[in-house]
Amino acid sequence: MDMTVPFTDVPGLFIGGEWVPPSAGRDVIVNPATEAAIGMAPMGGPKDVEAAIAAARHAFDAGPWPQMPVEDRIAVMRKFLAVLTRRGDEVKALLTAEVGVVYMLMHSAQFAGALDAAEYAIKLASRIEAEPLPIELKPNPFMPGTDIFATGVTVREPYGVVVGITPHNYPLLLNIVKAVPALLTGNTVILKPSQFTPFSALFLGHIAKEAGLPPGTLNIVTGGPEVGHQLTSDPRVDLISFTGSDSVGKAIVTQSGPTLKKLHLELGGKSAMIVRADADLQKAAAMAAFSFTLHAGQGCALLTRFLVHNSIRPAFVEMVKAIAGSLKIGNPADPTVIVGPLIRESARRKTEEYVQIGRDAGAKLVLGGKRPAGLDKGYFHEPTLFDDVDNRSRIAQDEIFGPIGVVTGFDTDDEAVALANDSRFGLNGAVMSANAGAAYRIALRLRTGGVAINGGTGDLFVKAPFGGYKHSGIGREFGPNWLNEFMAEKAITYPIG
Ligand code: NAD
């Protein structure tokens, strides 16, 4: 067992402001790059879920958190963020070992992105205030000679108990993205991380204690589908904010239906990049190569489907192949590594199965397709590229969540748009073209929550709304209206004079 990874010696689950011994025992958690155990994580059971819901419910109903002025909640969350920042090096070491995050990604979305998101949520919270409704002045039809003269305000208030359920791929970012806006807006929270990444959620308990969050305001319960099922079907929970696969998203809709909760679902994707004949080919190829290999393909919004004008497709494929084939694969503890491991053997097996599915469907394997040589330990898979892919085939339609990219040709813009939209997902999209107007027209026609033209800009991460159409989800995270997902609107009206 590697005993050197920070935050892996956890006393228990974090419930009601205390560390509570888990009722379902402990599970070994391994480093996906080495397969070495990094700790024994507490696993929640029914008793823990019950205690966490009771604690969150009591903290909401009895207060003081929901009634506190938003400025006071902001002050607590600023402390929370300051502790997180101060302990940043330990957190990064944990994410490297627990998730397999490579250096480049740690210094963008995985760690720095989490801080940016929290800062942005604080900024939005500082703007929460009652909004005036219009003044209504009209003759009173029931009392001739008098007027109806009235106005009112819309106030936004917390929903109540929020359950945040997160996946394994960006655990710190997504745990922060669930907990921080929900807390800032006065809700109380139960966080349930992926069973593969429990430590990067549980350490937030230390941070909550140090920041002075009132007991029961933030509760952290680990575990798998059973724990998620219990949390999402309990009548005392008011809102579920879920990030994960479309299949689990649909299960949550069913599980939560009888107790009718507000749902926010951030689900999977199979996002297309359209490369027009006039595109900057080198830029398009580099973006494609980095996108389908980023975090070994474990990203919801990654561009993994490349729709390329047939006149430039052979050149595009050669360039992507050269770039993706040269990326260093290995243990993310080495800062020069670009492609790390998949989270578990099951994820690698799924990737391998899709390589076979692609071959069987007649697609042309042009790069990768196997485990990298010389890496006997760790769940690694080579960046893999298929050309000549039928858009209706499974490798073009299913979210693989491994480093596989697929290339399909087109001849007209209409065809490219039809192919891009021929997907059950609708999360992200991209257009590469020297003709900005044509690219914008295409962007308007894509049924996706976001479209980046010629690479877009990273500066808008968290400031632009993010979310999906179709099986990619319901609701939006980030962007100027982000906090509204965690608040109910109430109209208070009154006569004037
Ligand atoms: P997953 O859906 O298997 O699991 C996600 C979470 O749901 C885990 O915590 C899991 O324990 C829990 N869960 C499983 N069954 C449940 C049930 N019946 N009820 C309640 N909870 C349950 O996803 P994963 O493999 O951890 O992550 C990968 C998926 O997440 C991909 O589909 C990816 O696209 C998606 N994702 C989406 C976004 C986004 O913002 N749209 C971001 C990151 C990841």
Quick rundown:
The chain has helices at residues 46-62, 70-86, 88-99, 103-110, 112-125, 171-184, 199-211, 225-233, 246-256, 281-293, 313-325, 345-360, 394-397, 413-421, 436-445, and strands at 13-15, 18-20, 26-30, 37-42, 131-132, 136-139, 147-158, 161-165, 188-192, 218-220, 239-243, 262-266, 271-275, 303-309, 364-367, 384-387, 404-410, 429-432, 452-453, 473-474, 487-495. It has 497 residues and is of the alpha/beta class. Residues 165-170, 192-195, 224-225, 228-229, 232, 243-245, 248, 251-252, 255, 266-269, 300, 399, 401, 427, 473 line the site of nicotinamide-adenine-dinucleotide.
Overview features:
497 residues, alpha/beta, seven-stranded mixed β-sheet, six-stranded mixed β-sheet, 21 strands, 21% strand, globular, binds nicotinamide-adenine-dinucleotide
Beta-strand segment tally: 21
Helix content: 25-40%
Portion of residues in beta strands equals 15-25%
**Span from first to last CA?**
73 Å
General form = globular
Low-pLDDT stretches are: none
What ions, cofactors and ligands are bound?
A: nicotinamide-adenine-dinucleotide
**Average pLDDT reading:** 97
- How many alpha or pi helices? 15
